[in-house]
Predict the structure.
Amino acid sequence: MTRKRAGFVALIGEPNAGKSTLLNRMVGAKISIVTHKVQTTRARIRGVAIEGDSQIVFVDTPGLFRPRRRLDRAMVAAAWTGAADADVVVLMVEAHRGITKGVKAILDGLRERAQGRTVALAINKIDRVEAPALLLLTKELNDLYPFVETFLISAEKGHGVEDLRRWLAEVMPEGEWLYPEDQIADLPLRMIAAELTREKLTLRLHQELPYQLTVETEGWEDRKDGSVRIDQVIYVARDGHKGIILGKKGETIKAVSQSARAEIGEFLDRTVHLFLQVKVRPNWLNESERYTEMGLDFSDGNA
C-alpha cells in the first residue's frame, strides 16, 4: 500500500527571482490561498499542490534582501522563519544575474539557519543564458553550499518544473495530508475575495453600514489572457439597505467595486474584472446555505 506524504516547502530567493511564478506553475489552476495558520510558528500558507500521494504545502516567504526599514526587517525575518520551519527549502537564483551580493547573503543565512535542513537549488530563467555559463554557475553555487539537488528551470515556460515537483513529492515526510483535498480548489479564494469586498463596504459606509449583509462570490472564470472574472452578490435584508449600498446614482457601489477590484487584483497578482450585484433577501440570516458559503456551521448559530 502506498503511504501518504505531506510537508512544507519554502521557496526563498531575492525579490523577483520568480518565486510567485514558480508557485503558480507548481500548483496550477487549482491554486489555494488560505489565511489561517496550521501552527503559530508556520508562515502563512500560499498554496497547496498534489503530486501522486503527496501533498506539498508552500509557505509564504517574502523576497530576501538587505533590510533598511522596520517593515523590511519584519519581512526578511518572516522569510527566514518560513525557511526554518519548512521540511524542504528551495533557493531560487536567476541564471542571468548569477551570484549577486544578495545571493551570497542568502547563502550565509542558509549556513547559519538551515543546519540539518534539506536544501535544494533551482536556477531559474535558464533560457536567458548559454549552456556553458549555466554549467559554470551550477558548479560555483554547489561549491559554495552543499545542495542536495540542483534543478535547472524556467518557471515562466515550465521547463524543469515537473521534475522539481516530482522530487519534492518524493522527499515529503510520510504522514497524513495537512489539508483536505478540496482545499486546493478555488473556494478559499472565492471566500477571501468576498471578504475583501465586504471590507471595502465597511470602510465606505462607516456608520451607515447595515450589519445584516453578506457578500458571496457566485462566479469565478479564469480567462485565457490570465485575468479572472469575478461575480459577487451583496445580500441585504431590506430594500432600504439596498439603496444605501447603491448610493446616489450608483456612486457608492461603483467606488466599492473599484476599490475591491484593485485589492483583489493585488492579492491574486492578476487582472480582475469584478461585477457586483445587490439583492434583497430578507431571511438570509436564517438560511443554512449562507452560513456554508461563509465557512460557518449553521447549527452553531443555535448555541
